Amino acid sequence: MNNEVLVTDKKPSSRWLGKSTFNWYIYYCSFAAIWLNIAASVNLIWISPMISVFKSDDPNINPLGKPISTIHLSVLTSVSFLSPLLTTPTLGKISDKFGRKNSMIFSATLTALSYLTIAFVPNFYIYCICRLIAGVAKDYVLVNCGIYSNEITEPSRRGRFGLFFTLAFPLGYLYGYVIGAYAAFRLFNILCSLPAVVHLLLCAFITDSPVALALNGKQAEALRALEKLRDSGQEKDLELELSAILREVKSKAENSSFQLKNLWNNAASRKALLLGLVVILSEKCCGINFVLPFSADCFNRLNLSGNTVNILIAVIQFLGFLFSTCIVNKVGKKRLMIFSMIVCILSMLSMGCYLFLHSKQIVSSNLDWLSVVCVLVFMIGYSTGLGCVELSILCELFPTQFRALGVTLAVTAGVLISFISLFAFPIVRESFGVYPVLWFYGLISSVCLIIVYFKLPETTGKSFEKIQSLLEENK
């Protein structure tokens, strides 16, 4: 096949949009990329099992030799979320220029090196630098893995494969909580690097996404990638799909200059960006930034086993993600997200009320189990919607020419929100308690719920072109 591939206005056949047969290679590519998502999710909860370590005055437990202050804890918790200051100008450009595969390899290398350095160099400032580097790697993972998942799958399988990728997050949380509960500091950080190392080994046999190859003028390689990733058995279908990709690539090339301005001037893309920011805000302000990093410490203060509760949380989250993976094509991502937001709002408000009454000594400490119930219900809601469909929806909203930029901007906003939340939480807790934060999360989530219900289109099972037409129609 020559590098010149006919760009036609014909649409891919219903065979491409309809049911797909089994293809082991696309599952292998997904499996390889999933390990990088696991590495990123470990990064998100790294501080949770480490809080008790850094607060210990036992030098055999605390590598720093003495407890750290609240402000140092805030810095160590949040520094990885300063990474957008370094990554935002280059994230989308690097992803497009070097491809999704090479960008994922870069992320895995940074992740592994940061954890191994923490394991063997006991210095607070080195820890902060390594956590920042791990944050940079996390940004590349969040952008590239989501885009890679969407670009290697056809519309009929995109929803399910997107959830396969997000299923890696609860697996990573569970992995991090378990090794954090039983492994010493050095071994814990060595084991944290393991998923990234596995990804690097598996990456030797995966293909880059057809879209990324087409963006770099490698049309013949893009077609070969489609031949590996598809099992239609009809070359005509593959050429039609490649033609659809090339139309979007051509549009991206025409808008390569002043891309941010062009994104904003395009009505559908502008709406995609605003809705993407709402989707990100919904997930970051639902309460997950409290539950994952700080729940163990809070439960320890209530004389409950924080590590045990965290492991239970991760198990529930994994089961919730697995359940969502099975039903997403029937129910739709938007409905899952709305259900999830309602449960999370009610859980945060209820737990805030309980902690308020507890702080005023109105309720007995014998009812501390209620806080555990609220968190577990929250995780059921989060894992069946917000936690598993957020990135998938985000990557589907944007057309090819603006996808890397749009996802980068939305993810950057989410990371900055997480930085503010994680840095402020220990300080706010010391001054006012936990309950004002939970009520604030409930309020923000309620506003986001209204916007999602009325404005967000359903993307499940729809081609990128169809999603863009929905955005244009739904003013």
Automatic annotation (TrEMBL):
Membrane topology classification: Multi-pass membrane protein
Cellular component terms (Gene Ontology): plasma membrane
Record GO terms (molecular function): transmembrane transporter activity
Boundaries of every Major facilitator superfamily (MFS) profile domain copy: 25-460
InterPro entries, per the entry: MFS_dom, MFS_sugar_transport-like, MFS_trans_sf, MFS_Trehalose_Transporter, Sugar_transporter_CS
Highest taxon, organism lineage: Eukaryota
Matching PROSITE patterns: MFS, SUGAR_TRANSPORT_1
Subcellular location as annotated: Cell membrane
Transmembrane segments: 25-47, 106-128, 161-185, 197-215, 272-296, 308-329, 336-357, 369-393, 405-428, 434-454
Keywords, in A-Z order: Cell membrane, Membrane, Sugar transport, Transmembrane, Transmembrane helix, Transport
Cross-referenced Pfam families: Sugar_tr (PF00083)
Descriptive protein name: Major facilitator superfamily (MFS) profile domain-containing protein
Organism the protein comes from: Phyllotreta striolata
Organism phylogeny: Eukaryota, Metazoa, Ecdysozoa, Arthropoda, Hexapoda
